[in-house]
Amino acid sequence: MKPSVLLLLAFALVVAMPLAEQPARAQAATGPQGGPPPSQQQQKPTPPQTPPTGQQPPQSDVSISVDVPVVTLDVVAATQHGDLIPNLKKENFRVLDEGVPQAITNFGPTEAPITMVVLMQFSGNAYGWFAAYARYWADALFPNLQAKDWVALETFDMKTRIEVDFTQDKDEVRNAIYHLYFPGFSESNVFDALIETTERLKDVKGKKSVLLLASGVDTFSKHTLDQTMKALRGSDVPVFCVGLGKTWTNFLESRGNLGAHMDYLQAENQLRTFAQETGGYAWFPQFDGEIPDIFRSVAAFLRHQYSLSFTPSSGGKDGKFHKVKVELVAPDGGPLTITDQKGKKLKYQVFAREGYQATKSGVGD
User: Fold this and answer.
1) pLDDT in the model for residue 67
2) Percent composition of the chain: helix, strand, coil (DSSP 3-state, to 5)
3) If you placed Cys at 185, which of 10, 157, 211, 274 could pair as Cys (CB 3.0 to 4.6 Å)?
4) Residue 28 in 3-state DSSP?
5) pLDDT digits 0-9 by tens, 294-327
6) Any domain includes 93
7) Are 203 and 227 in contact (CB under 8 A)?
8) What total of structural domains would you count in the chain?
9) Are the C-beta atoms of residues 286 and 264 closer than 8 Å to each other?
10) What are 77-80's contacts with CB under 8 Å, separation 24+?
């Protein structure tokens, strides 16, 4: 080949090489507008993928749970005369957890059917007096229940017995009450009965409650009052108490016997505490004529509750019992004023459980 031809071929190769690089550079430049050059993207650390809800990426071989506890309160507001206060809004409620205001995350009136355990003292103490009154008075509950409501019947003396499991057939429960004839034991283990009943209710769905008809005197329980209160505080089940003791002490007084008063006064205080701590109410009737109104009130309380939920600002994972207070407030944050039809101010009371048992957080929870 002639030297002139070789020179031309070499010149063509030198010109062609930079031209061949142009398409590659143009392709590399096309991409998201304003994005960093490839060298910067490689130097920037890759962000971790979003972990599943309730978890965070492991750090130092320790798994940290961030599941957030939610506390739900069923609340009833009533005037000093016992009239329920309707049409309240979320803005009318203030929730304090250990004195610290909390943000209410969910709010609304509850419309679920009643799910109730009638827990009756059916023991032979006081010559079967309390067993007889419990049977007689319990029957006044059923006209206040609706077809959609669920009810179960338990009795207790030394032991707790499920006479009828949850049913919507109210006649089945009434027949079971009518067929309670003679108490088997003279013990009255109300502490054990309450703990066993609330434990069974943990897996029961619905708006749960316990209607306790008892004197409140405990004679032989395995559990103490403190253990009972701890169990009730850890539960979300309101306890409504109808005390049977006044009928007995009135009977004793009429015969000049005043010796048993202290025991039954203490028992009343225990029943009142069960109700207050759980958001229920306690009545201590002396006459049969009071019973229909009492059971109407029980049903009204359960049908006109407001449900409030909040996430504790403190985290709620310290394992302690937290005192909770619910207040009614006006739009400006001051106390809510309730008046009657004549414009007269009325006193009122808010019924809600008085606290919750926080769970204990730990490494790996």
Assistant:
1) 57
2) 35, 25, 40
3) 157
4) helix
5) 999 999 989 888 999 999 988 777 888 899 999 9
6) yes
7) no
8) 2
9) no
10) 77/306, 77/328, 77/348, 77/349, 77/350, 77/351, 78/348, 78/349, 78/351, 79/338, 79/346, 79/347, 79/348, 80/346, 80/347, 80/348, 80/349
**Placement of tokens 């005197």 in the chain:** 217
Same domain, 167 and 296: yes
Indicate the pairing of strand 282-283 with strand 239-243.
Answer: parallel
pLDDT tens for 157-204 read: 999 999 999 999 999 999 999 999 888 888 999 999 999 999 999 888
Q: Which residue has the tokens 């169990």?
A: 231
SS3 149: coil
Full-model pTM: 0.75
Please tell me whether residue 356 adopts helix, strand or coil conformation. strand
Residue with tokens 């679920």: 112
CATH number for the domain harbouring residue 253: 3.40.50.410
Rounded CA gap, 279 and 76, in Å?
A: 8
